[in-house]
Amino acid sequence: MPRKPSYDRDALIAQARDIFWRQGWAGTSLKDLERELNLKPGSFYAAFGSKDALYALALERYAQDGVSRLTTMADEVGPLQALKTQPQIVISAKEMPARACMLAKTFAELQAKGHGLADKAGAHLEEMKECFATLFRRAQAAGEIGAHHDPDRLAARYQSDLLGLRLSAERDDVNAIELASDIAADLDRL
Amino acid sequence: MPRKPSYDRDALIAQARDIFWRQGWAGTSLKDLERELNLKPGSFYAAFGSKDALYALALERYAQDGVSRLTTMADEVGPLQALKTQPQIVISAKEMPARACMLAKTFAELQAKGHGLADKAGAHLEEMKECFATLFRRAQAAGEIGAHHDPDRLAARYQSDLLGLRLSAERDDVNAIELASDIAADLDRL
DNA sequence: GGCTTTATTGAGCGATCACTCAAGTATATA
DNA sequence: TATATACTTGAGTGATCGCTCAATAAAGCC
After folding, report:
1. Least packed by Cβ within 10 Å: which of A111, B55, B71, B138?
2. What is the phi-psi region of residue B49: left when phi exceeds 0, alpha when psi lies from -120 to 50, beta otherwise?
3. pLDDT at B122
4. Residue B54 to residues A13, A31, B12, B15: CA-CA distances in angstroms?
5. Nearest by Cα to B170 from B114, B119, B116, B97
6. Which pTM was predicted?
7. CB distance from B73 to chain A under 8 Å?
């Protein structure tokens, strides 16, 4: 009996993710979203409930895609090679809306105000870190990395390096390719 | 003949810097500033002209303080030791309003929208990077670092590491002290 | 003290914010 | 085809945004 929506909800979430990723939370108005997603206010709120609810969906999508892309690559080329390749990938950014990490941007923007979305972003960052740690553990098990290292500590450092790289890659005065290869080179010394 | 302002302009700029540093550009309203600086709208605009103008002053103050603190330390303990100590310092954050870098936060928040303050923040980041490069050059001249390294490349990597560290240090699930000491330890392998 | 000059005050400006809702429209079932 | 059930529309909500300005108060110079 009902009527079907004329839009593809998943596609709208992906589109919203890209806008939020680029412009941030406060930097994206509902006018922006309504225009880009081609939704009137009524439809928007019927579909997503609120700006924050859509942002949360966008964050989740972003984090899921990041983890699945990395684990897929690790299954194909091995854990260490995946970790070494990741820096290049995150700054290649041809069709990506931004090089900086959306989770980091969200966390940095909203943490001070105690916004719930900052906590969600922080949780996703933690998931991502645990994903890195798993790859370091697998690399250790495969003998690609010395057994004396703490994989959690390596993961924290590696994630921090990636966040720095991705932020630096937004700048014109930084050679991100050199930076990425230097970070990757560090993994060979473990 | 005139009447003197009842406030200390420099102190107000420092106070505004701390608020902006913590809450970001969009996250800080004029109401916030008027309340914290104890200024009515009229006085505020007579003193600073606009929110953006005050933000620019705050950025400048932030950058100047950062450079002068680092160069002072380098004069006291030497360039390499200063670079090795800096990571601990930036995350100690007893009386600092945030651990993340204000320049990086500003750049990340406003760059996508083409806001002029993002360019100013980017320029200050470049100054800071050049300051790091100078210290690496001085460390090289002193024989503390191998001559085969490119100091500009080292500076870019070091700055990126610091930005990542400072962002990570805002998180509860990251051991920032370990992170800082790992970054410092890397300098001994140069 | 009188005068000039500037600082201070706070009500209020238009614009924009996230969001609501009643009315109209299209569709799947009966 | 008739009806029930959504989806779509867009004018409009109160709140807040950055900011203005006329009125008032206070300080330095004569």
Report:
1. B71
2. left
3. 98
4. 37, 28, 10, 11
5. B97
6. 0.96
7. no
